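User: Fold both of these, please.

Assistant: Here is the first one.
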Amino acid sequence: MSWSGCLKVGLRPLAGDRIEYTHVSQPAMPVAVEKACQEGAGQVMSGAAETLARCCKPSTRLVILSGSGMSAESGIPTFRDAQTGLWSRFRPEDLATPEAFARDPERVWRWYEHRRDGVRAARPHAGHRALVDLETRVARLTIVTQNVDGLHQRSGSQRVLELHGNILRSICSVSRKPISETWLSTAEDVPPRSPHTSEGLARPDVVWFGESLPEHAFHEAVGEVNNCDVCIAVGTSALVQPAASLPMIAREAGAFLAEINPVPTPLSNHVDVFLREPAGRALTQLLSIMQAMPG
């Protein structure tokens, strides 16, 4: 399958689509990226950042699409890197599906408690803080994130759409109603019983493989990318559908498309500019350039 074909998998009506990985081999480094590395990545990044900064004006509608690379810089392992120690013998897909929860809810709950400990200890990094500042420099900034850690909100970002939920929240496995921390803290069972129905258990408020994205959040995300002037994909693998289709929807709608990622992705050959740096470094440089630009 071509890169273009991979990206167009999700360009049909997407609300209600189930989360899945697009299985592709690791893409070869794009010619433009390879040349950039040979010529000096620092100079190329600076030029790309300046180009991107000039596109982000006070009238700009800006969408940030953030993925696991953004959170990794805060010390949160990517989904597959979370398999350490006790959990190294399990595939993530065996712990993050409705079927896995039905088979062994205690195992799944304990794995998510292990992941929650890491999320609670993490702190937003300079890239998160740069996005908060960027909100004051454009007409509208919306963050559409695949991350489930809530770090964008903790850093102070005001408009965040969570496509895959939030790992620190819990819901009833039957009714999908939220379950409070107070209820969970007094429960003795693992996982805790649901306060909403006798058949239900507490489960993480995240989207598992085979489940549909939150319809309202995804509808809103599609609307944002269809109407933005600039779209920046930050730390995304461009492999997890249907979210991987969002940058191409933005591009087809006429947006300026940029990518921030230290490694090439299936999206790389389709962007207007790329910044081959970690999110924190690239976003702080972008902000610095914008701060230095005249009025």
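And the second sequence with its predicted structure:
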Amino acid sequence: MSTPQAVRAAIAALSFALLALVLAAPSASAATDHVVITGGAVVPAGQTAGDVVVIDGTVRIAGRATGDVVSVSGPVRVDGRVDGDLIAVSDRAFLGPNARVGGDLRYGDQPPVLSPGASVGGKVSKEDWADATNGWGWVSALGWWLAVSVSTLIVGVLLVWLAPGALSAAERAVREHLGATIGWGVLIAIGVPLLAVLALVTLVGIPFGVALLLAAIPVLVVAYVTTAWIVGRRVLRNRSASRWAALLTGWGILRVLALIPVAGGLVGLVATVVGLGALAMALWHARRPGAPAARPEAPAPGHPAPAA
């Protein structure tokens, strides 16, 4: 299965799981539903459950499930009774000799194994989960683009409002020390994740590694927005001295480029690396005793310098 097909299959699997969750709500009063993200679910002999939905883990039904049983990633073993449908997306379903499925048995990658004596009330069918989401890939991509666009714009507004000096210092670092800025950005982009992974492999360092990875998310967003602001300043240097105009211009350019397949991702990566380096250089110069203040650029022709 190719990567795009695998992605579509995963989306379809999650869609079926979410659908099962919605359908499970009315039956909650009659029996207990089992909804598990990871770890598996077991319905022992003599016990009754409603719907059973497992995203990642093994499913064992020795008792009775009055609703549907859905396994996205993991094997399913049925030795009891399933009143609804049995759906195995990416692993195999095993039906013992006493297994009873009242509805359909639907599978994806691996065909089920039915022992002599097992019965399925509906049909046994192979489903192409990838085809189920054909035509929806662009919707998810657009949704992701919109989410990133809105979040980065919000962060950009906060930066321009609360930390304009930091943006100016980062822009100065790019203007005066471009090579060092890129070098530091590459070093941070490679070194920090590597340090976090090394910390995670040690028992003592797990909290530090997790904290480092979580902290990296907002830092990467800030770095991306910083580069967007710097791009806007470069584009508008002879037209406008407004920080807000620079933010909207640079942000708009990067978000439009993000719509281009492959190239948009590379542009985002470069922007983040440059932003990391620029922020690192700005912090380094700011901590030096007697560091000079960021020098504003000369105002654009026809625009008077702002009052002190």
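The chain has two domains: 3-132, 137-287.
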